[in-house]
Structure formats: C-alpha cells, structure tokens
Design the sequence.
C-alpha cells in the first residue's frame, strides 16, 4: 500500500524545511560581518565565533545546561516508566485522579511553580540553591510530558503477551526487560528527547532556582541587554545545530559499521 | 555523541545489558561532575546583570582577593528582588535609581558607610545626593554606571520638521504610526503629559484620576503608534538598523553600537527634555559573607579604571569623575558627552514615586496593554 | 484535566473481587507508581498548598495580611454597570483585565494547538508508515532544531518575518513587492506561527508513538477487503490514533495558555497574555495574592475546558473500545 511517490513524503520534506528553515538562518548570520541580523548580507567573518570561544561564562552555561538536561531527562524517564506501567497495566483504584494530579505542573504558570519552589527550598528545607535545585524543578515539569508519551505507548498492548511470558516462567523483571521495555522503546526514546529539550530550553524555573551558576537560557536572557553579544549567541546556536547534526550522522555511521559485532548482545 | 549512539542503538534493540550498564555508568559519572551544593557562606555573592559579571569591572577586588565573587545573574530587578525576598542570600545587588527604592521598602537594603569606600569623594557631587542614592538620610546605593534616555532616530528616514525641532511627540504622531518604538514602561504616559506641556516634576508621581485620564489619552495613543514596545536593547537595535523603526526611546550605548556598524543614527535633544538614569551597588542585609568583602567589591566598581573600561566597552557613563579623565577622549566624545557634569545638570534625572504609586502606574500601564488586541 | 483516563470499570474483570492475586497486583502497581508520585507529591503539595492559601490572603505593602478572605476572587468577578468593550464584547466587570486576557490567551492557544496538530499529524503518519528504517534517527532529526535554545529560535523567526528579513528581502529581490510587508511580524499570526514551530515536535512524538503501535495487519486486511486509502484512514488510523492525538493536543494547549514570553517577543504591543498578568502581579505590581487567585482561576478554567472537551468527544468510550 505504500508504493507510490506520494503527498505524504512531499509533506515530510516541506515539514522538515519548516522546522529547519528559520534555524538555518542562525549559521548564515553568525558568519555575516555585522552586528545586525538583517539582509543584505555584509560579508564573511569568523569574528563572532572568536567572540563566542572567548566567552567563558557562556560556555560554562552551555555545559551546565547539557549536564542538567541529560540528568533531568534520564531521571524523569526512569521515574515515568514504572509509573506509566502501573497506570496502564495494573488497574489501580483512583488512577484517574492520580493521573490528573501528575499533570498539574502543566497547568500551573511556571512563574508560580518557580517562586513557590524557591520559597520551599530556601525557607522550609533550608537548602542552598545550586544546579541540583534547578534539576529537581525540571524533573517536576518534565514528568507530565514523559508520562504522557509513555502511557500512550503502553496503552492497548495485548496484556496476554505479558501473561504468557509470566506463564512461561519468566520473572516479572525478565518480562519487563525482554518484552515490555522493547515494546515501549519508541515511547522511551521520545520521552528521553522531550525531557531533554524541555529542560535544555527552560528559563523561568532555572532563573529562580539557580544559585551562582547559570544555565544557557538564563545566560542568554541576561545578554539581551547587550546587543553586541547577539552574534556571539547566534554562533553558539549554529555550533549546537551543526554539532548535533554531525553527532547524529557519526552515530549512524558507527552504528552501521558495528551492526555485526553488536548482534551478539541483542536484547 | 555517546548519548545519541546510545539512544539510537536502544531504539534498534541492539544494546546488550552490559553495554547499557556501562553507558549508565558513564551518565553517573556525568552526574558526579555536577558541582556539589554551593559552598558555605564566606564567598561574596552578588546579584548582577548578565555581562557585568566580567572581571574588568571589579579588577581591584580580584587583585586583592585573588578571585572573583560568586554571581547570580538576572535580567530584571523585580526578578532579583523576588529571589531575595524568597530567601536567596545575596550580599550585593546592582539596582538602578528607579528600582532601588523597592529594595529599601522591602527592608533588604542596608545603608552604606561611605567612609569605607575610598573612591566615594570622586563621585559626581550631583550623584552623591541624587534621589535613589540618598533615601531618608541614608546612602543606600553607591552610584556606578549611568546613561541617558532620549530619542534615537534615523536622520535618513525621519522628516525635516522633526530634525529641526525634535520632540517626544513623535511617539504620539499618527504620521509615524508603526514606525516608532517606545520602551515597554509606564513612562509612556508620563512622557505624553510632558508633550502636553507639563513638567516632569509635576507628573512623575501622577496617580488616581489624573493618571487614569492621562493613560486614556497618551498611553493608548503611545501604544497604538509603536511598532513594538521594546524590552530588550537587542530587539531595538535590530529594528533601527533595518529601518523597520525610524525613531525610538533609547539609551546612549545604542548610538555607539549602531554607528560602529555604519548605521546613520542621531541622538536627539528633545525640547521637552531628555533623561538621565543611573545604577549602582546596594549592600543587602541578606548576605552571609563578611561585609568587608562587600565594601571591597563596591569600591572596586567605583574605581576610575572600572569607569574607563565601562565607557570604552559599553558606551555608558561612570559615576567616578576621574574615569572621564583617563578614558579615551574619542570614546567619551562618541558617547555624545563632552562635559558630563553639564550634561547631567541639563537633563532630567529620573525620580522615584512611592511604591504604591509605582505599583499603580504599572498596573494602569499593564491594563492598558491588556485591552489592546 | 485528565489527560489519560484509565477506566477500570470498562475492562472485563479477569479476577474476582478480594482475590489475593488482585491485591498483590495492586500493591505492585502502587509500588511502581510510588517513586514518581511520591516525588510529585513532595514537590507539588507544599507549593500548591501555599498558592491556595496565598490566594485567600491580601497584600499590604510588602507585608501580607493573613486574614482569610475571598476578596481576591471577588475582584475577578466584581460587577460594574459600566462596560469595558473589547473586540465588540461588553465586559460588565469592575476589573475586566483578567477575564479579557484569559479569553485572549485561550483563543490564541487554541488556534496554535489546531495549527500544531494539523502540521504534526501528517508528519507523524509519515514517520509511522513511510519510514521503515532508522526511525530513531528521524525522531532525533525532528528534535535537533530544539536544542538551539528557545530565544535563538524566536530570534530566527524575527529574521524570517522581519522588515529586512528573509521573506521581505526575497520578495523584493524577485520583484513581487517594492516595499517590505509590515504585517508579517508583531501581530497575533506571528505569535501563532512561532508557537506552532516551537511546539510541533512535542505533538509529533506522542502522535507518532500511538500510530506506531497500530497493527499493520488491520490495514492490510482492510485493503484486501477493498477499502480505499481514505476509508482506511478514517476507519482505522484516525480512531486508533485519536487518544495519542488528543494527548498531544492537550500537551500543547495547556502550557501555551500560560505562556507569555512568545507573545511578548513577536506579538507587538498587543502581546500581553494571562501569563504576563500573573508575572506582573507577582513581580512588578507586588500583589502576589491576587496573582495566586488569577493562577488558580486560570487552572480551574483550563481544567474545566479540558474535561468538557474530553466528555464532548467521548474520550472514555474511545479508550474502552480500544482495549
């Protein structure tokens, strides 16, 4: 049924153009010899990249954001997998209100969550602010997203598969690892990626819950006051874009090469 | 790279348990690299605008103590105040003359002992006693950086009548609809009243009926004429550079930046007057570090060397008179300042209405914007 | 505001009530749920409790008057004989701003959500039915633009739509127009476009995930029985993808109602939303209790709308059928 060169493929190409079109202007203007990102282009320069490389606080902020986003997405997904399993497989009494409660962070304006968490952390718990407090706040707002994605993946699987697995003498852990987890994998990947981009991009909670170290969005917002720094931030954006694209391609190449040897340890 | 490879292979179901554990271990190491909880209190903690956390601006402190203080950066004073009020232990904050009053009213500002600041006597006398520095007989802020607020315009894109007799009325003029940009601030209403012929001193603390009437007349008009209300200088600079807007409320660093990029731009001296703002360092009583450290940091900010760096890097002025003597004269001239003292005397220094009035003005302005669609 | 309702009553019971194995399963289920739930209770209970309490207090200068009162809520609905007209609608309220902003935000968010789903659904179909290898690669490709930081993406849109931006410069170079079009930026459609771009990946992923598990043999069987493509789409794909699509729509709709940064950046002078009001009340206007009341009212309205929406489309029945 999927033979004809079709509208859907054409659409996918347009869609990718829509996604990438605007962001590809970043590399363009990061190489433009002007502080201002307007046409016509003025000429080629690498000075914005030199500015960026010398901007130690920005690079530190980038590193902080990468670490936080990785930790947050792993933690949120790790918490969301068992929760999603419980909510879709175990027919728990009161599941509906529980799910509603867990979706609450979506509805509360981020400024409210941020200020409230700040007061709780500083006044009630007496903890010092650090990147850890930001990570904790981010886990809270990432959980609903991770949970939704995982639940929509886990719902509607034939439970008889798992029952069969149990009947065949697998321990629940074996069933999970050999059956449920592989089945849930597209959801797990989506959850990991969603969690990463939410945390990586979040500003309000990060601002209030960070101590003396910054995440990238906090740093970038503070730089808006200094228009001359703008091309440097565009250079950074371009580098992230190009860097991640190169990583994806590399990973793909390595994966293809490693296909043979990997087979031995298949799940 | 490891991460993407990991995800990709997980997706393909080609990851052995051992590999997964190894990768998980790597992530664990990543987590350990995360710095531990903020160290205990002795290090000075400053709430600072992003960009001002550069050692150029407090070199004397670094020279004396060997390292920079900790910074928590912010993008707006209200955010910073909210953070302090929630219990964030900062020692020094960098507010401006129009916002320091809120720190005082909130009870987090501590009076400064100017005898502990070696550069205090070199501060422009006008700034030493300006509203915002001196509150109820206490020095609550050591003025550091200052600048102007006036109209920046593209001489090639505005008409001759404006150039001959510049006026804030351009922001309320139907002929410039969609081609000007005001700051996103209740000041629009005040400036409107000034266009109507009132003096700043009479209208800066308008409230109640008078404010509502002024908002209805000038606020609405200012809102309708602006292409956008700017909140960050980057947006404004882009707009003027592209010609999207031809005139805007602007700070004087913008002139320097745009000219450096070859954009023709002028800074008007409108007939209703132009403004001076200044910012500075305020000692907070929430801090945990030794007060001596805070004084050293503030004093470093007041030094002429810091002033020179500020003038030459950013195009803002500095509160220390001596910094104008040692700064590159070309840079000083490029700021449009030949005689700082005379300039300060001829401009309108922003004043602080009471908290209640400030909040009311902000609410009126916010409500006005809300009703626009 | 239930995004996914599990409905035990709808499922056939395989075990009798009081069955020890059922109890064991429940205990196991709650065991699995407890880390996530525990964390959320720990982190949300105090803040939400504080928020609710705050909304019954009043601000007095920098101090808070802790007498319990409904004054903040009363202010939101206080009647006024004089109507404030907004968009031709008379609002008979003494303080009409929150109500107007709420409606404005809901409409903006609704339009953006519809746009996001319309854009995302075909893409998710493509990923589920056309892409046969490297699916993970495709997912990552979709998310790469979102690793570049939100502010920079909004800024990119300004370059695209701006006065000397990509569209205007392109059209001028082609001789289509001789003066830049000004209606591209700083208006509601720019907000919708930017929001759609920001959120579309959040919608593609859940929809894709639910399409991915549709049994291909169903589609083949339908094709064998002579169903056209359109019939297969309407009778099989659409009903089975509905729960994921609805979840995606809610994931986009709910947070965008409270978003205030995007409208402020590309919306021009009219870019104030309900989220901006909450932020202003908490920070500039120094009236956190009223801000708390506005937040709670906003949350309640969103929750109500979501419940009505789910009820209207018969979400519960739909999920039942799928079991």
Sequence:
């Amino acid at each position: 049924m999927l033979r004809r060169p079709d509208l859907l493929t054409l659409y996918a190409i347009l869609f990718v153009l829509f996604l990438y079109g605007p962001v590809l202007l970043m590399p363009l203007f990061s190489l433009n010899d002007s502080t201002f990102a307007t046409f016509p282009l003025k000429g080629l320069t690498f000075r914005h990249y030199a500015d960026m490389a010398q901007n130690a606080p920005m690079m530190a902020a980038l590193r902080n954001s990468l670490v936080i986003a990785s930790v947050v997405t792993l933690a949120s997904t790790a918490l969301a997998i068992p929760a999603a399993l419980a909510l879709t497989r175990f027919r728990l009494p009161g599941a509906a209100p529980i799910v509603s409660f867990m979706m609450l962070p979506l509805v509360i304006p981020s400024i409210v969550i941020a200020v409230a968490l700040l007061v709780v952390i500083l006044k009630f718990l007496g903890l010092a602010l650090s990147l850890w407090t930001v990570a904790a706040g981010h886990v809270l707002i990432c959980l609903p997203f991770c949970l939704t994605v995982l639940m929509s993946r886990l719902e509607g699987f034939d439970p008889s598969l798992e029952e069969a697995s149990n009947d065949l003498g697998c321990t629940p852990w074996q069933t999970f690892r050999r059956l449920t987890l592989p089945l849930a994998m597209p959801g797990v990947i989506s959850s990991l990626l969603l969690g990463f981009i939410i945390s990586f991009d979040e500003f309000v909670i990060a601002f209030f819950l960070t101590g003396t170290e910054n995440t990238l969005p906090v740093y970038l917002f503070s730089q808006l006051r200094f228009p001359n720094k703008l091309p440097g931030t565009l250079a950074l954006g371009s580098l992230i874009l190009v860097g991640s694209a190169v990583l994806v391609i590399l990973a793909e190449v390595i994966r293809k090469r490693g296909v043979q040897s990997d087979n031995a340890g298949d799940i | 790279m490891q991460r993407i490879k990991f995800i990709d292979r997980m997706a393909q179901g080609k990851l052995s348990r051992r590999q997964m554990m190894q990768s998980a271990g790597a992530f664990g190491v990543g987590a350990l690299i995360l710095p531990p909880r903020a160290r205990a209190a002795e290090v000075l903690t400053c709430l600072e605008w992003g960009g001002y956390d550069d050692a150029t601006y407090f070199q004397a402190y670094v020279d004396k103590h060997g390292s920079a203080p900790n910074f928590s950066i912010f993008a707006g004073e209200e955010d910073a105040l909210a953070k302090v009020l929630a219990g964030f232990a900062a020692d020094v904050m960098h507010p401006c003359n129009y916002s320091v009053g809120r720190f005082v009213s909130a009870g987090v500002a501590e009076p400064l002992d100017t005898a502990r600041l070696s550069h205090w006597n070199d501060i422009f006398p006008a700034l030493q006693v300006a509203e915002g520095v001196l509150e109820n007989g206490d020095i609550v802020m050591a003025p550091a950086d200052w600048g102007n607020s006036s109209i920046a315009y593209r001489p090639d894109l505005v008409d001759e009548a404006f150039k001959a007799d510049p006026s804030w009325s351009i922001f309320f003029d139907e002929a410039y609809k969609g081609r000007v940009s005001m700051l996103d601030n209740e000041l629009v209403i005040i400036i409107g009243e000034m266009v109507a012929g009132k003096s700043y001193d009479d209208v800066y603390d308008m409230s109640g009926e008078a404010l509502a009437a002024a908002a209805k007349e000038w606020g609405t008009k200012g809102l309708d004429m602006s292409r956008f209300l700017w909140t960050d200088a980057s947006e404004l600079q882009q707009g003027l550079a592209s010609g999207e807007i031809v005139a805007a409320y602007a700070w004087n660093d913008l002139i320097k930046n745009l000219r450096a990029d070859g954009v023709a731009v002028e800074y008007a001296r409108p007939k209703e007057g132009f403004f001076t703002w200044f910012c500075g360092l305020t000692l907070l009583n929430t801090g945990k570090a030794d007060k001596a450290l805070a004084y050293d940091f503030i004093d470093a900010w007041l030094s002429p060397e810091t002033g020179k760096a500020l003038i030459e890097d950013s195009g803002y002025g500095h509160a220390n008179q001596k910094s104008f003597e040692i700064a590159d004269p070309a840079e000083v001239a490029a700021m449009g300042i030949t005689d700082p003292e005379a300039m300060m005397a001829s401009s309108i220094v922003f004043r602080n209405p009471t908290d209640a009035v400030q909040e009311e003005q902000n609410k009126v302005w916010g409500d006005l914007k809300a009703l626009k669609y | 505001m239930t995004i996914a309702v599990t409905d035990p009553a709808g499922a056939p019971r395989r075990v009798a009530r009081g069955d020890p194995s059922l109890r064991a399963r429940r205990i196991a289920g709650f065991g699995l749920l407890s880390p996530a739930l525990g964390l959320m209770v720990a982190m949300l209970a105090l803040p939400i409790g504080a928020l609710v309490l705050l909304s019954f207090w009043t601000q007095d200068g920098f101090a808070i008057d802790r007498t319990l009162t409904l004054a903040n809520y009363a202010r939101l609905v206080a009647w006024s004989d004089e109507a404030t007209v907004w968009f031709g609608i008379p609002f008979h309220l003494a303080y009409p701003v929150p109500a107007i902003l709420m409606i404005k935000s809901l409409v903006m968010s609704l339009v953006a959500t519809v746009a996001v789903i319309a854009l995302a659904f075909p893409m998710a179909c493509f990923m589920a039915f056309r892409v046969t290898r490297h699916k993970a690669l495709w997912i990552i490709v979709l998310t790469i633009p979102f690793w570049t930081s939100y502010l920079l993406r909004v800024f990119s849109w300004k370059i695209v739509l701006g006065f000397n931006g990509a569209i205007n410069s392109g059209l001028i170079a082609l001789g289509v127009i001789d003066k830049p079009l000004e209606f591209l930026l700083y208006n509601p459609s720019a907000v919708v476009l930017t929001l759609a771009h920001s959120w579309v990946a959040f919608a593609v992923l859940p929809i894709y995930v639910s399409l991915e598990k549709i049994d291909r043999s169903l589609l083949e069987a339908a094709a064998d029985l002579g169903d056209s493509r359109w019939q297969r789409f309407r009778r099989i794909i659409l009903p089975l993808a509905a729960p994921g699509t609805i979840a995606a729509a809610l994931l986009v709709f709910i947070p965008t109602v409270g978003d205030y940064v995007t409208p402020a950046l590309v919306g021009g002078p009219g870019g104030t939303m309900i989220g901006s009001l909450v932020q202003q009340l908490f920070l500039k206007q120094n009236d956190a209790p009223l801000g708390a009341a506005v937040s709670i009212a906003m949350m309640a309205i969103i929750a109500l709308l979501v419940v009505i929406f789910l009820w209207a489309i018969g979400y519960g029945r739909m999920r039942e059928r799928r079991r």
Summary: Chain A has one domain: 7-242.
